[in-house]
């Protein structure tokens, strides 16, 4: 058991007074500032699948002796149930981390998370050369460390492990660049999240150079310093497997008279909250999901034959885009726009429609179309409480569901015309009956 404790303490937590708390239902264990006196509480964490350590400074343990485990300890480490370790609010000397990380090769830990940590100094990563780890998912959020530039040798020493990593996120950590050589180490990476950083248009070209991230399918560049839609397109075109790209919360602008070819595999594009007042072009031709919500779009006049889901909530649209331009569409979200009426004939076949918070004209056709759509069960959340009438004045502020749309009230002609026809037919039938019953009525008068 000493090696297991050493592994956990080596990531370290002998600091201020604290202890561990185990939630057996969730199989989640949290340790706060362990001390020599309370370290025994860590034993209960060995039955958890997720272990979180909070608080502490590990510099005092840089010289702590960490020996290779014996065969019985290796067997015991392999039997642990822990699959995920979270390290939060820690000062982490890299040299200590480099020595401890190799112990994970004896465990079944698949996910490692660093949150609000400070990495100090530089470690000797040569000890990790040719070392395989079971960790497939690695996350950093709000961390501080030395710049990535000039650290290609460190990443090269870790390439045996990093080359098998499938998921990587470095968010909210002031990253300004991703050197090309680093990207080439991540040969099997499927998902990369670098949201909430300081990446600019210039840095993207080097980050996604030829040979970098060859298997990448999901890329989040949310909330960085990107401005050029064309430059982003040019930067990611060398990612042949890219399927999902998130550019939301960047202030993107169109580049006049420019064109670019997006990766052919790209199916999902998020352009929400990017300050758009018009649709940027070109769009990836094989898109299936397009999110342009939270912008300033007044109209959307595009045609995408493969599009299945279109999100346009929180814009200033005054009319619903022509659904005929998207023959595969099944989902359309239009909440909080300036739309007065939904075209029932165009949207009635969609499986998911959301259009709450619009200033509806509750004419018979407008209210009737919404009520009919709601009756199909395809109108999304917000019905009926968020669907209110703006006009005509007699219905202003009234819920759309409460507007009477009976045939007699909305289309009196449809009632009167059949009645008139019926009366006319009845009159004709009566005349025919009268003639047949009294044939003398039609006998011609003879003059003598």
Structure description:
- The chain is an alpha/beta fold and 448 residues long.
- It is built from 12 helices and 18 strands.
- It has helices spanning 2-10, 71-79, 94-100, 152-157, 159-162, 180-185, 201-207, 229-236, 344-347, 364-375, 407-410, 412-437, and strands at residues 20-23, 28-32, 50-57, 84-93, 111-115, 118-120, 137-141, 167-171, 191-193, 218-220, 244-246, 268-270, 289-291, 309-311, 331-333, 352-354, 360-361, 389-391.
- Helix 7 (201-207) runs parallel beside helix 8 (229-236).
- 34% of the residues are buried.
User: Helical percent range?
Assistant: 10-25%
Using only CA atoms, what is the Rg?
A: 34 Å
Low-confidence stretches: 1-17, 411-417, 441-448
> What is the H-and-E element order?
HEEEHEHEEEHHEHEHEHEEEEEHEEHEHH
Span of the ends, CA to CA: 138 Å
Beta strand count: 18
Overall pLDDT level: 86
Largest sheet report: 16 strands, mixed
Q: In DSSP terms, counting alpha (H) and pi (I) runs of 4 or more, how many helices? A: 12
SSE class? alpha/beta
User: Which geometry do the CA atoms define?
Assistant: elongated
Percent strand: 15-25%
